[in-house]
């Protein structure tokens, strides 16, 4: 009996891994068909879907901006239209004018349909006003009942009043401390200003003392060569010297001044009183001494003031530090009491909110029409959300806040509907004006283009001003006024489809969304791309490189597998080792090589697809090693039997070995094609012309530059780019199996 085992752990792991693995694919597919370009939305699937991205890639529509630009180029005969014959140009211009008229007419028809659906929606909702009021009343009533039922239990009223009283006293104390700290800071700043002033005055005194010191030094040098006589005592001179030296000695900074004064007094003592120089020196020295005495007295006074202010500043700092510590303690007590009070104030806050719900319930019955009801209720959502935000900050998230949030979500459609109505009115007004101007300009273009075209045929370079006016109308007036309002109408219509409580209204919203989206596509300026050319370039380059690589590798691998020659063992390994280096190492060398080759062989130069194909042929070593390994598994006896029957070595190769090696050759073709199709680095370095880009570079342009926000185009291009590789694999997979049975039968 066979026992069946259930691998629960394996199944659980698989169920977890499958969504994770498939999520990127689902995201790419859903984003490629989204109309709202919301690539990073929390909603993976959108109700607003469209295949417009695929249409823009495969068969881009020549809408109004493109037609206007093309017509201007046709009339001015700019390249490539300068090579067209006259009849062809005229026919193309007439076709473009007809298309312009058709687009204007389609826009008008689409707008009429949108307006009709908008009116039908308003009429339907107006008829449902009583139902809306009833459902709204029930929604608010259920919230009120839920809050009343789950209202926290009230604490003792005495506890709350006592704590609130303590909290009030603490706040008053903290306010007093803040006031005291502020006053101290004002004093501190005032003391700092005074301190700075005293320091500047001290510096001025110091400069004056240094100036007098320079005079003393000059006198010392002047009387250094005079002959000295015996020492004569002079009590007056002695007293002046002693007093001055005593004052200067208090400050070490004035040691040089002190020494110079001592030297000068010493010289004065030994000079003869009869000398003329004695009188001059005595007078100068006494004058300098007097000035120095005054300056030192001022210096002493300023130093005392400086010391006093230093002490005051230090005391203020200590006092402020103590006050800050007191403030922190009081704030800690305040926070503790607030935490204790929160549960008690929570009840009061909820009661106040419930009271506001009562007033809202009374208002609901007073509204007689839909517009008044919507205008009032559209503000309730923001009120509810503001209350929830404040509630969560104070008390944290709980079931009550979640219930209020869900109710606010139920009111969201009122706000969206109000925005839809306001924007639709603006959209209608501006679109009507734009259509009128566009129709008038188109008529004038139709009447005047032949005259301008005739002049351009005669060699002039004139442009049709009406075409420029029409283009400016599309690029400025439509974008700034019509498109801005229209996009919001479209978005709100899409949002309302998901949240409006009436299923019947969704069909009108869907039609409004589709209508304005089509109008936007008609008038929208789209960036030109060459997606189909990019895919074609990649298919050509990848296909040619894959075929050449497979052909060369199949021939080159055969001698290494079947023949014996010097270097056979290490030759292929050497080639393989060279290929192991990262491509970034030699990309500059390859760029230089193609630059040189392009001078002599232009089709192998830079910015050419053939040059890029030539670069991709460098992947031969790895594929040759792969095919050689497969050749080794094919028995030699098959070839030997054929050679006995008269077959040549080459005949055995292509009639026996190649059919048997078809699986590996198919694998090499597929892998080479896929690697080259998705290769980016060398293609980005070599190719500069946008029309010669490969698919990989083209895909990169959809995620940067002018396409950096168009995720719909990017994902659609990614999915379309998978098709060539998928088709190649599906078309060649049968050769992987059938090749195993080919060539194994003798004869």
Overview of the structural elements:
The protein has 4 domains: 40 residues; 192 residues, no CATH class; 196 residues, Helix Hairpins; 211 residues, MetI-like fold (Orthogonal Bundle), CATH 1.10.3720. The relative contact order is 0.09. The protein has 747 residues and is mainly alpha-helical. The chain has 25 helices and no strands. The protein is extended and about 135 Å long. The chain is 79% helix and 0% strand. Part of the ABC transporter complex MalEFGK involved in maltose/maltodextrin import. Probably responsible for the translocation of the substrate across the membrane. This is Maltose/maltodextrin transport system permease protein MalG.
How would you describe this structure in keywords?
membrane, 0% strand, Helix Hairpins, 747 residues, transmembrane helix, transmembrane, mainly alpha, ABC-type maltose transporter activity
Briefly say what this structure is.
The protein is an all-alpha fold and 747 residues long.
**Care to count the β-strands?**
0
CATH architecture of the largest domain: Orthogonal Bundle
Q: How much helix is in the residues? A: over 70%
The average pLDDT score comes to 83
Beta-strand proportion: under 5%
The quaternary structure here is single chain
- Mind telling me the C-alpha Rg? 47 Å
GO molecular function: ABC-type maltose transporter activity
Protein name: Maltose/maltodextrin transport system permease protein MalG
Membrane topology: Multi-pass membrane protein
GO biological process, one term: maltodextrin transmembrane transport
